[in-house]
Structure prediction request, 600 residues.
Amino acid sequence: MSKMALGINLSFCVKRWVTPDLWAPLVRDRLGLDLVQFSFDLVDPMWPDGVLQDLAGELRAVPGEYGVEIHSAFIGLAHYTFNQLLHPDPRVRDYAESWLARAYRFAAEAGIGRVGGPLGAIASRIDSREPESLSEADYNDLVTRMRRLAGEALKAGLRELYVEPTPLRRECPWTIAQAGRMMADVAGTPVPWRLCPDWGHATFEPLYGRYRASMEDWLTELSPHIGMVHIQQTDFQYDRHWDFTEAGAVDPEAARDALRHAGVGDRPVFLEVFYPFERDDRSVLDAVAASVTILKGAFG
Amino acid sequence: MSKMALGINLSFCVKRWVTPDLWAPLVRDRLGLDLVQFSFDLVDPMWPDGVLQDLAGELRAVPGEYGVEIHSAFIGLAHYTFNQLLHPDPRVRDYAESWLARAYRFAAEAGIGRVGGPLGAIASRIDSREPESLSEADYNDLVTRMRRLAGEALKAGLRELYVEPTPLRRECPWTIAQAGRMMADVAGTPVPWRLCPDWGHATFEPLYGRYRASMEDWLTELSPHIGMVHIQQTDFQYDRHWDFTEAGAVDPEAARDALRHAGVGDRPVFLEVFYPFERDDRSVLDAVAASVTILKGAFG
Prediction:
């Protein structure tokens, strides 16, 4: 079988190795990888234009010097903290839309052709009962914004946009059916929307139930729409984003087989791991390096 | 002994009960509290002026209708994700400074007199060796910005600014000595800078060592500078921000005695707990309510 494309999301660099002169040599020399996914936790698209221009220039130049390619840029923890395109105030949704348009322009200027992430969350109710899905009004507003954003992506010069499904009833899509419907509803946009399922999202048992929490189902049923995949170690009890030095329920060789069996073995797989801010740098690097070695054993 | 002031940071509301018409009734009716600390995870000070004006108006009006007072506003997860005032690029430091100035104006307009949080983090090194402290140049730049920010706070109409020490060598202050030096170096600003120690920061054993990780030392040695305290349940192995339904090492009655013994029993104590985004609303509310009941038993 042919080698699969393995890369790493720069989530492990957040507030640590924040500039390409810091992370590119680590990716090449410590991890032995040549493919990364940039994180908007390293650059906030709302920073002033002049700053963004210079940082985009660095991203266009420096990683290549280390033989590292940036495949895509994804929303990180900071922006995911907000309700984004589904905030109760439509003006805050507008701001989230303009945030994404700026993110697209920054990515394009940095030579990154794909941008993605989760889309947003509706607010919770006082009675703490979570509806099964968005209202039709909220869903239609979201799809309208996605179609408009594809126009912004075309203007910026991007080639693909990505939705990352998340395991929350207040976000969208959280089910396979919702993801399929959304892909149909945004079909034909000038820049295509595709899906990035995450191993720790699809397997979250408290939401889906033990027998329905299955990454295999997502991969198989949505395969034509899947452009890339996030992998992490997790116990299926939370969206852990552990690395593979932790004891969890994800077996890298079984994951590889599932990707091939679903016919998406040619799509890149990105390790996405988060660490407590207070964990020391050396132990983070050691753990990421050990995880990449484990994953290479399965995917390499 | 007199009752101590117990409040709650709105961290448990992030991306859930994001507007005061949602969280104020929960704070009064489910938690039985009348004191909160607002979180900038609920409102980003970079949102457009018109939006901020309306949201500030709601904050000035709605919580009071429920008998809930907003004591202060603190930086949350989203802004803490970035290097803030210590980013390697001085222009990003400038942006973080303007972010804070906008946060001050928003808080003042919302009728909130105190703003605080962690200050920033220097980047990590490629060799992953962490220096014991900031360079003198970085430290002096930070103090210059803090003094300038106190002028912004005066213009906005605030009455106190807060530094929250964090348990990272790349942030400042992380030791009692650094915190004391910083308080001396910003003494006399038009709006005073004070400290908000956190129970899970001072007790982080992997950084301080088992026998030096002590909240009692922070409280006793820095008591004149301490204006409020963050409490959480934690195991001293990470900065957990668990609630008090979790098994941890913090005993609420011992915490109360430590505060009184250090002479800071008259300062308000805020529970600050974070939950995985994917945890369901009902279990979050139940756990927060149970924690508040436990803390009231000690502090009430």
Summary: Chain A touches chain B through 59 residues (CB under 8 Å). The mean pLDDT of chain A is 97. The longest helix of chain A spans residues 136-156. The radius of gyration of chain A is 18 Å.
